């Protein structure tokens, strides 16, 4: 009964916090003209909004969503992998301050980028006597404040709700999935029933394969000292899809950053701009290859962040455990890195294939190009639902554990 009350209480908190965030995403920042319809239906913006849990198709109070928080979390996790005494000796309070500062920095940066995008739509006549720079700063401050508010809300959900930070991505993910299939580069696509039937079959096969691969893991057996071998069943699990959904969440963002340079009029119609346009566009072969390289590189990077061979080798050495025929310490770390690299290479190759094949075919058939972002969204949905399921199972399983 106690566990039932706990899960109901946590779900209640999560629903309340979700409602607050969704309401904030609907409140538009004043002073902007009507957003063109093609902007609200833009496929790339929809996918970016999905991965951040924000609303990048128009400036609202919470447009940036979880973007700055997620970026700061990844950067801090990468920094914390550096095994220095200064980082290891930081208190939880100090770590929290650093993560907040990083979130603020990225919120300002992403707020500036969003403002640059929508600057042509600012109606300066609504603010007589106020300079453009002042309006620019106020809008950035509103967007930054909204991002910090979402960061605070997500921490509350991690403590009192379920689903942690990923929960706030779920509503946008579910709402944008159908729209991604009909939003083309040239406008809304008209699809027939046979297309949806084929899509249903492909989606079902994709979900089955992805769930199988996501639950697949390589196990490195561990020898525990002082424990009889017949009771020794310990191992280090390494998932085949080690990076999870993180590559999908960040690949489009990283891919879009160079395009911000094209906003500068001094670089328009130059050799530099033509190279950028070719290398960072989903409408060229070179651009698709660049996107694949970014996706694969992020996948490998997140694999090492999620597994952390150095920490595993260090903990094994401190506990006296070891991998059979592998010397503890540096040799163990090297062995784990080798296994991780091979496994991550296979898993990330799968992510790249399901993303790039539709984009290449989409160069000739526009409808197919959308499947690259559709598959990425479905993959994120699988990961988030799996996380929610595991957390709920853990809460219910606590009733089976007794001290005496």
UniProtKB/TrEMBL annotation:
Transmembrane segments: 100-118, 130-154, 166-183, 195-215, 236-257, 288-307, 343-361, 367-389
BP GO terms, sorted: protein transport
Gene Ontology CC, one term: membrane
Record's keyword terms, sorted: Membrane, Transmembrane, Transmembrane helix
InterPro entries listed in its UniProt record: SecY/SEC61-alpha (IPR002208), SecY_dom_sf (IPR023201)
A Pfam short name: SecY
Superkingdom in the source lineage: Bacteria
Family: Belongs to the SecY/SEC61-alpha family.
Protein name: Accessory Sec system protein translocase subunit SecY2
């Amino acid at each position: 009964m106690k566990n039932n009350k706990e899960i109901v209480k946590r779900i209640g908190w999560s629903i309340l916090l979700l409602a607050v965030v969704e309401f904030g995403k609907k409140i538009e920042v004043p002073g902007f003209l009507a957003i063109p319809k093609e902007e609200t239906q833009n496929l790339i913006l929809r996918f970016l909004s999905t991965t951040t849990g924000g609303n990048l198709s128009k400036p609202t109070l919470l447009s940036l969503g979880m973007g700055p928080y997620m970026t700061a979390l990844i950067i801090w996790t990468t920094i914390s992998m550096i095994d220095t005494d200064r980082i290891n000796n930081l208190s939880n309070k100090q770590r929290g301050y650093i993560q907040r500062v990083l979130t603020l920095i990225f919120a300002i940066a992403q707020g500036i980028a969003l403002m640059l995008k929508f600057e042509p739509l600012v109606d300066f006549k609504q603010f007589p006597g106020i300079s453009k720079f002042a309006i620019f700063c106020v809008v950035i401050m509103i967007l930054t404040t909204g991002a910090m508010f979402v960061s605070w809300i997500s921490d509350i959900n991690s403590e009192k709700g379920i689903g942690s930070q990923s929960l706030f991505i779920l509503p946008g993910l579910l709402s944008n999935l159908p729209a991604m299939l009909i939003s083309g580069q040239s406008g809304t696509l008209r699809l027939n029933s046979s297309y949806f039937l084929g899509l249903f079959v492909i989606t079902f096969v994709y979900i089955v394969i992805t769930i199988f691969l996501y639950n697949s893991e390589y196990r490195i057996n561990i020898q525990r000292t002082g424990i009889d071998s017949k009771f020794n069943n310990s191992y280090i699990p390494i998932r085949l899809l080690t990076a999870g959904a993180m590559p999908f969440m960040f690949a489009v963002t990283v891919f879009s950053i160079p395009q911000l340079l094209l906003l500068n009029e001094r670089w328009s119609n130059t050799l530099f701009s033509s190279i950028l346009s070719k290398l960072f566009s989903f409408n060229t072969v070179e651009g698709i290859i660049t996107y694949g390289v970014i996706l694969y590189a992020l996948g490998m990077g997140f694999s090492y962040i999620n597994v952390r061979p150095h920490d595993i080798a260090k903990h094994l050495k401190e506990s006296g455990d070891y991998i059979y025929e592998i010397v503890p310490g540096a040799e163990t770390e090297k062995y784990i890195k080798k296994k991780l690299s091979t496994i991550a290479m296979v898993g990330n190759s799968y992510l790249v294939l399901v993303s790039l094949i539709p984009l290449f075919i989409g160069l000739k058939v526009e409808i197919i190009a959308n499947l690259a972002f559709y598959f990425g969204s479905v993959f994120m949905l699988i990961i988030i639902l799996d996380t929610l399921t595991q957390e709920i199972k853990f809460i219910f399983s606590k009733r089976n554990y007794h001290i005496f």
